[in-house]
Every structure is written in structure tokens, then in C-alpha cells.
Amino acid sequence: MDTVFDFAGYAIYAVMFFIALWGAFCIVMVVSRVRQKQFTSEEQQSAFLEAIEEPLSKGDYDAANELCDGDRRATCQLSQMAIANRKLGYNRVKQLLVDRFQRDVLQDLEYRLSWVYTVIKAAPMIGLLGTVLGMMKAFAKLAVGGASVDVSKLALDIQFALITTALGLAIAIPLVLGTAYINVQIKKMEDLVGYGLNQFLEIFKEANIRFPNK
């Protein structure tokens, strides 16, 4: 019976180690994705919009497209998409950009964060399972050994029970703080991209009216 409990204990440690790594990896990926999709400042975004306004005001869509080409930031990618689909008309292009931002950026981040939330919920539960197994092992020794049970071994079983609970909380708490930080960053990114997109659409609308056949 001790062998079964020992194996279960090692398995719980291994599972907690891997889910901690997975949670940390997902946090890093989401932070990286948010930073990849936004300008570092509103001033930098305004500089891009000023740069793209010049060719658009002349109907030079190719030059405007070159300014966006290869840039992975959301405002640039959405601007490039608007230019590529300009013949659909302003209203349809606007709806296309909003849908694409929601689907390709925000929903992608939400999907990645869902894994972090899963780890946050799972880690304490796995820790609690370890606690239950540790206490079961301790009580099993008491039932078999009675008064002659080795107190030091009993203490080790109880220690294991407490360690797994502590590990579960130690994994979940930093991830809770991490997701709170990420949600703030996502909101900032959404506001910045939304502001930039509105500015671009005003520029695009004027160009689309002046040069409808280009």
C-alpha cells in the first residue's frame, strides 16, 4: 500500500511541476502577444497614422500598403486589410476590420488566457488531492501500527499533505496576479488600437471618397 501512495505522491509532484510550467508559458505568450500587437505609445501610433495619411491623401494606395507591409502590430495589419479591401466600400471595410480585430486578436488572447484560468483552478485541486492522499497514508499507518507507529514517518506523510496544498496555492496565486496584470494590458491595447483604428478610418474614408476607383 505504501508503494501505491508513494507513486501517487511522485505523480502529483510531477503533474504540479508541469502545470506550473504550462501556466507560466501561457502567461509569457499572452504578454508577448499583447506587446506584439500594439504600439509602445500613443505618440508612436500617431506618427504611423501621419505617415500613412500622406500617401492616402494622394490616392497612392501602394505606398500606403508598403508602410504597413510586414508590421505585425494590429493597427498596421488592419490598415493594410482596409487598403486591400477598399473596393468594398467604407461601411463594409469598417465592419470587416472590427470583426477581424475581435476574432484574430481579442479572441486569440482570450483563448490563451483560458488555459491560465484552467491552471489556476486545477493547481489547488491537485494540491488538495495530494493532501487527501497524504492523510490517507498517515491514517493507514496508524490503523496498522497503532501505538507503535513511527512518529517520524507519520510526520513525513502529514508534511507531504501540507506541501502539496502549499504548492497548489503557490502556483495559483502568482497566476491570478499575472492574469490581472494581463487583463489591464489587454484593455490598454484595445483602447489604443480602437483609437488608432478610428483615426485611420477617418483618413481612409476621405481617401475612399476622393479616389473611389483606385
Summarize the helix and strand pattern as letters. HHHHHH
Please state the oligomeric state of the protein chains shown: single chain
Helix- and strand-based class?
A: mainly alpha
Number of strands: 0
The largest β sheet comes out as:
none
Span between termini: 79 Å
In terms of DSSP E residues, the strand content is under 5%
- Whole-number average pLDDT? 87
| Unreliable stretches | none
Count of individual helical segments? 6
**Shape, per Cα inertia axes:** rod-shaped
Q: How much helix is in the residues?
A: over 70%
Q: How many domains, in number, for the residues?
A: 1
From the alpha-carbon coordinates, what is the Rg to the nearest angstrom? 27 Å
In a nutshell, what does this entry contain?
It is a multi-pass membrane protein. The chain has helices at residues 2-37, 42-57, 61-68, 74-84, 90-145, 151-210.
General description of the model:
The termini are far apart. The model has no long low-confidence stretch (mean pLDDT 87). By secondary structure, the chain is mainly α. The chain has one domain (2-209). The chain is rod-shaped. Helix 1 (2-37) packs antiparallel against helix 5 (90-145), helix 1 (2-37) runs parallel beside helix 6 (151-210) and helix 4 (74-84) packs parallel to helix 6. It is built from six helices and no strands.
List descriptors.
single chain, 214 residues, mainly alpha, 6 helices, rod-shaped, cell membrane
List the helices and strands and how they pair.
Elements: H1 2-37, H2 42-57, H3 61-68, H4 74-84, H5 90-145, H6 151-210
Helix pairs in contact: 1-5, 1-6, 2-3, 2-6, 3-4, 4-5, 4-6, 5-6
